[in-house]
From TrEMBL, chains A, B:
Domain DUF4957 stretches: 523-630
Name of this protein: Alginate lyase
Gene Ontology molecular-function annotations: lyase activity
InterPro entries, per database record: DUF4957, PbH1, Pectin_lyas_fold, Pectin_lyase_fold/virulence, PL-6
UniProt organism field: Flavivirga eckloniae
Keywords for the protein's UniProt record, in alphabetical order: Lyase
Domain of life: Bacteria
Pfam families the UniProt entry points to: Chondroitinas_B (PF14592), DUF4957 (PF16318)
Amino acid sequence: MLCLFITSCNTSVEQTKTIDVSNIDELNQAIENCKAGDEIVLADGIWKDAKIEFKGKGTKQKPIVLRAQTPGKVFIEGESYLRLGGDYLEVRNLYFRNGYTPRNTVIDFRIDKKTFANHCKITHCVIEDFTQPDRDRTDHWVEFWGRHNELSNCYIAGKSNFGPTVMVMLKGNEHIKNYHQIVNNHFGPRPRKGGPHGETMQIGDSGTSMTPSHTHVANNFFERCNGEVEIISSKSNYNEFRNNVFFESEGSLVLRHGNYATIDGNVFIGNDNSEFIGGIRVINTGHWITNNYFYKLKGSIFRAPLAVMNGIPKSPQNRYNQVTDAVIAHNTYIDCKTPFHFGVGSNVSQKDVLPASEIRSAQPIRTTVANNLIFSSEGDAYPIKNYDRVDGVLFKNNMTNSENNGDVKPDGLMTKTFEVNNVSDLLYVPAKNHEDVFAGFDFETITTDLFGNKRASNNSIGAITLPLKKNPLLIDKSLYGTDWFSAEKPKYEAKTIKVAGVKALTEALKSANSGDILALQSGTYAIASSMVIDKRITITSQDKTNKATLEFSSSSPAFEMNPSANLVIEDVILNGNKSQDAFATLDKNMTKAYNLWIENSEISNFKNVLRVSKGSFADTVSVSNSIIKDCINGIQLNKETNDKGDYNAEFVYITNSEFNNVGNNVLNYYRGGYDESTIGGNLVLQHNTFTNCGKTDQDHILINNRGIVNVNFSNNTFKNNPVKLIAVLWGEKGQKPVDNTLVNSGKIEVVQNLKLKLMY
Amino acid sequence: MLCLFITSCNTSVEQTKTIDVSNIDELNQAIENCKAGDEIVLADGIWKDAKIEFKGKGTKQKPIVLRAQTPGKVFIEGESYLRLGGDYLEVRNLYFRNGYTPRNTVIDFRIDKKTFANHCKITHCVIEDFTQPDRDRTDHWVEFWGRHNELSNCYIAGKSNFGPTVMVMLKGNEHIKNYHQIVNNHFGPRPRKGGPHGETMQIGDSGTSMTPSHTHVANNFFERCNGEVEIISSKSNYNEFRNNVFFESEGSLVLRHGNYATIDGNVFIGNDNSEFIGGIRVINTGHWITNNYFYKLKGSIFRAPLAVMNGIPKSPQNRYNQVTDAVIAHNTYIDCKTPFHFGVGSNVSQKDVLPASEIRSAQPIRTTVANNLIFSSEGDAYPIKNYDRVDGVLFKNNMTNSENNGDVKPDGLMTKTFEVNNVSDLLYVPAKNHEDVFAGFDFETITTDLFGNKRASNNSIGAITLPLKKNPLLIDKSLYGTDWFSAEKPKYEAKTIKVAGVKALTEALKSANSGDILALQSGTYAIASSMVIDKRITITSQDKTNKATLEFSSSSPAFEMNPSANLVIEDVILNGNKSQDAFATLDKNMTKAYNLWIENSEISNFKNVLRVSKGSFADTVSVSNSIIKDCINGIQLNKETNDKGDYNAEFVYITNSEFNNVGNNVLNYYRGGYDESTIGGNLVLQHNTFTNCGKTDQDHILINNRGIVNVNFSNNTFKNNPVKLIAVLWGEKGQKPVDNTLVNSGKIEVVQNLKLKLMY
């Protein structure tokens, strides 16, 4: 027995030490000299332009630690980054903010092309709004190289620029079979980006679809990660996604390339919010999707709760392999609209505009869908939608409480009457176990349920078996993020500031807090310079029946939209002299998205109503109940012309408004590049009247919406507009004119298949 | 301590029994009733048309055995097959011969689409010449399904028809991660087939390139497996090829699809034989090729000792992925001509005739070639050949005893003076260890050498480290095949039979043994029916200065070439009446290849000199020092028109001969279907004279050799042939006319890039 106790003492006594550092030079020297077991402590305060290359050789028992003196009191700001190279290095409690990386990564698990990290860890750190000044510039916030590295208990939010937030690199034998751990993190909001390359996580790329990765993504909280259609893009083999929560995140967990992923025990919460909130999208071979819980998701097609795609026969490496040998079992769908979508992406009808190598005609085969539970409180007559045949899929013992009126009615999707109980917040569980489970090949490996309860004795259809543990929590927030940072900001009570005169207006605009309302006294305000908007501001009139008038005389924009601008113009009259723009973004460094809302207002005599720069992005541009007249150009969201699926605004609402004598480009809203999966651009054009517009329009099209995917075009009136075409709508995306009135104007054309430049 | 001994006795005593069966009904009943531990014994004798479905549930400790009463005395003949379904079944000592399967498999590790074998074993069995009557019909002799099955110590030879001999199927989760064992077998000769689908082993297909297979192929002896350019075609992931011997086999071990193969400790023996004998061809990602020994290989390009291919960027699934992350280390090349070929298949120059998705421009990247040893007794100034750039390959500490005059001279390919000793048959080993080895990433996992000696203490460049064990055997024949069957047939001493008169000739032909020579007395033999050739026969004249004349009068072929015919016509005059063919194959059921040699003979007045059927295949057709005249048609090897890379003859030699007044198709030798890797068809046309030929030729081309890859066209004379073209040669394959004389005939055209139908 004695030998058990001897070994642990049998090492020579080595000095390990704590080294306090308070500037970069001291830090560099400490790193230079560090040995296994050492702890380097960064002094509290702001570390500006900190370019940290943390190199060293720790051991499993004795890692080398680099940490903040006080958790959350060490701020990494300015042009900073952190790179790791070596073994068993650990970084704790740093706070990245007010800056961005001057290179391509904020935190990088390598120093250079030859020096990688292995068994290294970033934990309890925060990266917040550490985004590039230029949205078009690509970076990654955390880039994995090497093997056995860890990102844990971090809070990461606010990336607005191009590039996945977390990227796992697999290029080279040094990085495969990496078993990286990405666990217990809180991925806070990532704003909409407009186009692709806004993933919160990407593991590999299309060139690593054959590479064994074994990255482990577990117990993370993804909160409103809205960057693009893929929250996580898995592009390598054997990745595992377990017990993560996807909360109101506009996108899906997508098995884009690579095979044999495990998606087990995850929670997808839509809460009946945006139709952009999706679930799991399946491509490729051999995935197991089990024990997941989906709640109130409204997404469909690419964003369906379960989207199983059609593939391209003998697909090129970067396109869509056929789905084969997938197992989708024991998942629960509560109040999701049509949870099953099969053959998603089938596009045989488009063979005239697409090359053969783009036609997704290969249906899923050798795929088992079994023991899933679908519950709808109000009944959902279409639990399954198919875009192609589904004979290659074996449906067994799936249960729904609604009738199935869909096109396919597999025997294995049974309608049964059953109840669910609300057990805790967002958690609905059947009143009893439904034990008639199908035993598919290797199903005995599904040993537990969503909560880790053993299935052996109490198996049931769906993600959850009874009995439940006491007080089951669907989302246990104590698991995620750091032990020192709170993502919840104190709520600001907005105030209304009454303003009279230009000087007061200018000063109030400067001093107002974000959210405040500037209420103008009636009268005319002669304004000689730009009003800079860099926060949430409402400008309105005190007397809505006698609106204030702002007269602009300088040639700079009336309103200069800065990053994070959120401007509401309500009950105000804006008037220019045709030498300036009413609204314009900065020409560059539009770090973050802006919003513009015009309501019950009047805009006249401007050069452009809205002019934007290429890198700018509006989440929403809205004009309602307003009059726009006598402008040279209208709303121009057409500068992002890289033709790679990007665009300048996510939502454009123009409703109940009048456009008179806008000479050119009343609206030019553009998205270029064919990519079926990055669905983007939303235009609502309803109940407007356009008169005498388009006189100087070069392309003779009044409303340009080329490439925008979602368009509602209805109840407008067009009078005396001397153009050839009012608009060209995209039939394949379901666009059609509804109840418009055309008088002495061009016509509205519908093109079924729009020819776009292929992106790849 | 006691507990260790108790468990093994702790099972209830079950009766296991031996069941003797002597016919199919008894066998079926025995199978019906069999239990774990039972042994079913087939009575000695011939089992004709035996369709055996061996189903049962054995256990690891108690397999169910089906075996021959006496090893090698149970013959499975006629239309027979064996299928296995269940667990732990074992089949021993059966001999498949004189027949073929009426289905698609001879031995199948499944009964039907739902009943598979797991942990089942075929051992010490023989399958010999059990080939389909029709060469065009596809089957597999051993088809693997399920998991953990074994083919061991078998002798398998003589498959002539379409389809890999051994096929591992991976379609479905039941068959992945199969860990099948294919070990200690002797794969005897597989004849040339002419075109693709003649592999000796194939593991998966292009649709399973993402599937983990883990098939283990070890200690097998591949003897003259000449079926096609790929002896083994690996088309799935994680397969292992260890310690196999490839002996004078015309083809390569090809990593066609799938990734992460291990090729360790294999031996490739060319013995300076055919240029078709290759080594290892590399495509895809992550392979480790270590400790292999290559001896006197003359193959090049696709058949090079080491062929590392270029890939197609973003390749379609069934084409060529880029080579990435491969490790090629510690291999030894002894007297191989230019062992390293890189960028094989680069075809950028063909972009005018091929679609972009066929252009192999992606060079190997992130690939390490290190610690390899190249020795050439006579010096080889070109140890490496490159068809594209090789900057993506890291060469380190490779050693050659010759100067490198090649186009690329990587630092890591060093010229050093060193000696090798002949230690045993075919085995050459450096006189001392060359310890300056490169330590690449994960190279510490290469723990042993070709013979299993530890590298830790005595590492060396090349496949072998010193000291050697005593009496090292490169090829230990005791390891391979059954314990009861000898593949070596007693050698027959051919005899010469003197023949005078038609009757004697007819009778002698019937009674002769294969290999005999029929020597004809001078004079004229009037022959009224076909002479059927189904063995190796030489027909010659006793007096070479006064040759015998055979006069044919019937309209059936003068010589009917049956399967396995090997006919030598030497010093004989053949004369027809223009109503019959001189030589013709059977119209169908040409099970096996035939050979035809015409030497110092004269052939005149036939309808066709040679007419073949679609399914027929000649290994060699040779005409030398002979005269062919006054025939309507010449040699027609043009019936295989499936345009899938198949053709009717491997070698066609026409040398030192005269063709006079052959009206049409003097030679028509055809191969259709573009497939760069199944290199086929060989024509030597040298020192011939063609006069007054081609008068009735429809296509106005005298010599048709479309699609034939290797053509030597030199020193011929063409006089007064009224055709447009003498021939069209294929520039891209290096074909060109050399020293031909053209008088009043068409011209010879060289087309650089022949436009062929794509095969896939």
